Amino acid sequence: MRIRFTELAGVVGSPQPLATTPLCGAEMASLPVIKDAYVEVVDGHISALGSMTDCPTDDAGWDVRRCSGQWMIPGFIDSHTHLVYAAPRVTEFRMRLDGASYHDIAAAGGGILNSAAAIAAAEESELLEALLQRLETARATGTVAAEIKSGYGLTFESERKMLRVVRRARELQPMPLWATFLALHALPKDADHDLYVDAAIDQWLPALADEGLVDFADVFCEANYFSPSDLLRLAEAAAKRGIPLKAHVNQFQSIGGIDASVAAEARSIDHLEVLT
Fold first, then answer.
1. Which residues contact 223 (CB under 8 A, 6 or more apart)?
2. Distance separating alpha carbons of residues 78 and 52, to the nearest angstrom
3. Helices 124-140 and 156-172: crossing angle, nearest 10°?
4. Could you give the C-alpha distances from 258 to 8, 181, 244, in angstroms and in order?
5. Domain residue spans of the chain
6. What is the DSSP string of 176-223?
């Protein structure tokens, strides 16, 4: 199929290859823009784009779609999602609006532990149906690929359930998906920290990786959750299986998670709300 979009108000893109080096500071706000533009798509791939002054005039064999006043922008690749969950946390959102902190909500039995209880009670089919609906909404609003984390399981069975749902969703809809093992997201109530970390890294990760359920490994490196040493240990175990690391760090405090993530060559370092 050959489609030519014409008379676009603008396109965020470049007809020339762009540099692949990281952008920093003000560079991140500088986007390549072509105004009064056209875009040609052949068999689902962009084959040409540019100014309307350079647009071919021969329309034979093209499905021409005039887009006066509209913009074309790249699809959004969402690299950090928690789209597999069993129940919305609207009550907790209300608590946040009323001034409660993340720690206040967790102490009241909410947060990740609340989500883990709901996941444990949910059927895999229910979670899959809900995820497919969320992915449809995401596609309709411009997301073209997504990473999806576990981390609301906190037991082997529930973590596996979440990752199996991601794999099944990958088979049933067109959006590319990547699954991230995030058992080190929170400590289950009354669990021993060291024993839980041992189980997650030494037993769960290998078993789930052997099932082909894990594309990335992740950890919530934060005071009262998991330490930089836990992060490095997870990274080492994951690397032995060719699994890259992602990391949640510095959401509330700076405890060395950035340095540990860099040392572990993490693929991404997320949150970074507290910097020193």
1. 252, 253, 255
2. 31
3. 50
4. 42, 19, 16
5. 2-74, 78-271
6. -EEEEEEEET-PPTT--HHHHHHHIIIIIHHHHHHTT--SEEEEEE-T
Alpha helices in 98-184 (DSSP H): 102-107, 112-121, 124-140, 156-172
Q: How far apart are CA 30 and CA 248, in angstroms?
A: 27
CATH topology identical between 2-74 and 78-271: no
CA distance 79 to 149: 10
CATH for 2-74, among 3.90.70.10, 3.30.200.20, 2.30.40.10, 2.60.40.10?
Answer: 2.30.40.10
Residue matched to tokens 């359930």: 161
For the entire predicted model, the pTM comes to: 0.90
70-112 pLDDT, tens digit each: 999 999 999 999 999 998 878 888 888 888 887 788 777 778 9
Q: In terms of DSSP bridges, do strands 2-12 and 33-42 run parallel, antiparallel, or are they unpaired?
A: antiparallel
Does the domain spanning 78-271 belong to CATH 3.10.490.10? no
